[in-house]
Amino acid sequence: FIILKSLDTLKYGVRTGHPRFFNQLSSGLDVVGLAGEWLTSTANSNMFTYEVSPVFVLMEEVLLKKMQNIVGWLEDEGDGIFCPGGTISNLYSILLARYHFYPEVKTRGMGALPQLALFTSEHSHYSLKKSAAVLGLGTDNMVMVKCDERGKMISAELEAAIVSTKKKGLVPIYVNATAGTTVYGAFDPLNDIADICHRHSLWMHVDAAWGGGLLISDRHRMKLQGIERAWSVTWNPHKMMGVPLQCSAILVKKRGLLKECNELGAEYLFQKDKHYDVSYDTGDKSIQCGRHVDAFKFWLMWKAKGSEGFEAQINKCLENAEYLYDQLQRRTDFKLVFDSKPEHCTVCFWYTPPSLRCLPAGPEKEAKLHQLAPWIKARMMEKGSAMVGYQPLGGKVNFFRCVLSNPATQQEDIDFLLDQIVQLGQYL
Amino acid sequence: FIILKSLDTLKYGVRTGHPRFFNQLSSGLDVVGLAGEWLTSTANSNMFTYEVSPVFVLMEEVLLKKMQNIVGWLEDEGDGIFCPGGTISNLYSILLARYHFYPEVKTRGMGALPQLALFTSEHSHYSLKKSAAVLGLGTDNMVMVKCDERGKMISAELEAAIVSTKKKGLVPIYVNATAGTTVYGAFDPLNDIADICHRHSLWMHVDAAWGGGLLISDRHRMKLQGIERAWSVTWNPHKMMGVPLQCSAILVKKRGLLKECNELGAEYLFQKDKHYDVSYDTGDKSIQCGRHVDAFKFWLMWKAKGSEGFEAQINKCLENAEYLYDQLQRRTDFKLVFDSKPEHCTVCFWYTPPSLRCLPAGPEKEAKLHQLAPWIKARMMEKGSAMVGYQPLGGKVNFFRCVLSNPATQQEDIDFLLDQIVQLGQYL
């Protein structure tokens, strides 16, 4: 009975691993990763101390070190921890920046601090604002810096914002640069931003939750040039590397800061008189107490496919994005939201059905186009043929955002998606 | 090769499901729960929206409603969300209390607020202090209220602390009462605390991460009398109910507050023009974006064993604790840390080996006793025979804290533990 119920659950669920699931940044289903997750749940363990999770704690350290090396930090730099998702990883980065400049905040709270200002681009992920709210900094103090047409932060705008914020009496402490924005897949100019952070002595964070995977690829890693200058980095292997959910890391350049910022030394857990080197008890670096084991599946996948395997996967996803881009350029019934080769695995576009093609440009056409994407998506979901996201942005009406992060997706799946949109659109 | 590596990982890991694993509040390995976790990882889904996780989102709502009913809230009250662990659940409670009294904090930050004060007992979990640090309230403003010998908050001390904090110019907003403390397993007097919170208009949170399971048992639920008066409750089914890690809920009495406090309405995820009732998109209530599916295994276990099954499990664990208590009282070489029947599944005690028995009470004996528990634990771990925690507390030297939350534990396992301690202790 229970087994039947369970299978029903999968039947009525959404098949996020399907090659025609283009809806979310995380997709695919890696069998080795899945085996890792099954073993993790069989171990039913917890990351707080080395004594409870000796193997997993060591694996986490190995993986974090490997990721720090790939980011490009020096041998004596680097620290980190796996977190329940990229939003919490980004939250850590602000928490650490605040503690770095004002360690008294831990005991005395924000009341002891001047009014702080943080900077991120208007195309960055909403977790930055959310974290500012949670940490008591306030969303108003997260300054949204303008982007260019392509969704990249304009560095001159960043510097102007810093200067004008200072004039208002606020104290800037933190800049988030995004490597792979959520919608356009854009990469902020990291070196320019690093220069500005250096000039104003600000904490530079890179949110590479979505773009971090590209560091593994020789062909694409130059898009993240300058990331080695960041003070902290968010990188979600559960996105571009296909690790099963959840697997996100916050990497921190300054060693020891995570522990200082978060440790409380609870005596029932972090006894100092244990019979082993208690520096392995990394749990007090966390803002959590118990913590899910997210490292093992990732470790296992890396062992199984090597960096080359990840690289091949990532390159293939980007080739798929380029293929979609080429198709969209070729077909007159589709229009790209911005007309340049995709830097990452998201492609944004409108479809104009026959019924709208002769309509003159203007508010009426825009309004109809706005309703089209949700309508087509709904029909697709009813048929169960494919799944793709849509959204408005700024002044732009609803467009499709197609994510190509599943290495199982083939070119025919992409053709299928476009044909499906055309087929459904003709009934309008 | 990969399979072999994986099995090695289990071999060198700690068997947290073993009936002689007495080390942590979460233990045991429920096969139905494990099957649920395996299916969850196969679905590889994410809790942000109904469109991506239709079944899991509905299951989460059903479970949260069930838990709210058990807490005792009215039909039109109650909200909640599953979180990555009890610490994050407790963090939510403070976040919500702050927002409830000062909604402007979301946009303007703590700078716009007076200096706030929070209250919890000195025996409460360290996550309360940690959350105060993270949220920017400061650990100094988390006032630690005195407890009695048994580890229960003294309500008169709470009221005195509130009054004196007000005199200092701080604004009290929040009291945490613990239902099942981490070390002693004590239950704070919830009704007395609720009266005080009512008098001073404070948010009352109950941290029932560890004790919440007892609500399912007719025999034990009176220990949490008054919990229905709380404004929020943390309850971890992964502790006393044996659900595989992780499974923790924050329950909130006031409906809609979670969403108001945390929502940002990101347009790429929470489109308003979807083809279904978007009130099912509960993801924006969270401080996370992506969120692990923690509901399914719990739902499956509840279907499989019913409330009666959970009740029988919990009653058995408490009987085991009473059995250990009886044995310790009977044996002259053991001494209880406090001499009253355990209210929950932790029992704290010292062992005095033959070599120390004739030593007069005093600093020398205390010092030797302090070293004993870590030494015995280390030997036990080397042998792999059992695992039990220890710690000092206040002026008390290291004592053993034995946790009996695994329903697979039998009385002979408890006898084994005590015999093992005696056997290892004789070599000293």
UniProtKB/TrEMBL annotation, chains A, B:
PROSITE patterns in the cross-refs: DDC_GAD_HDC_YDC
Key words of the record:
Decarboxylase, Lyase, Pyridoxal phosphate
What Gene Ontology terms describe what this protein does at the molecular function level?
A: glutamate decarboxylase activity; pyridoxal phosphate binding
**Which residues does this entry mark as bearing N6-(pyridoxal phosphate)lysine?**
K239
Q: Name one Pfam family in it.
A: Pyridoxal_deC
Record InterPro entries: PyrdxlP-dep_de-COase, PyrdxlP-dep_Trfase, PyrdxlP-dep_Trfase_major, Pyridoxal-P_BS
Gene3D superfamilies this protein is in? 3.90.1150.170, Type I PLP-dependent aspartate aminotransferase-like (Major domain)
Identify the cofactor(s). pyridoxal 5'-phosphate
Where is it found, in Gene Ontology cellular component terms? cytoplasm; presynaptic active zone
Give the record's GO biological process terms: gamma-aminobutyric acid biosynthetic process
Give yes or no: UniProt keyword Lyase: yes
Q: Which SUPFAM superfamilies match?
A: PLP-dependent transferases
Give the record's family classification: Belongs to the group II decarboxylase family.
PANTHER family, per this entry? Answer: GLUTAMATE DECARBOXYLASE 1-LIKE, GLUTAMATE DECARBOXYLASE-RELATED
What is the protein's quaternary organization?
Homodimer.
Name of protein: Discs, large (Drosophila) homolog-associated protein 1a
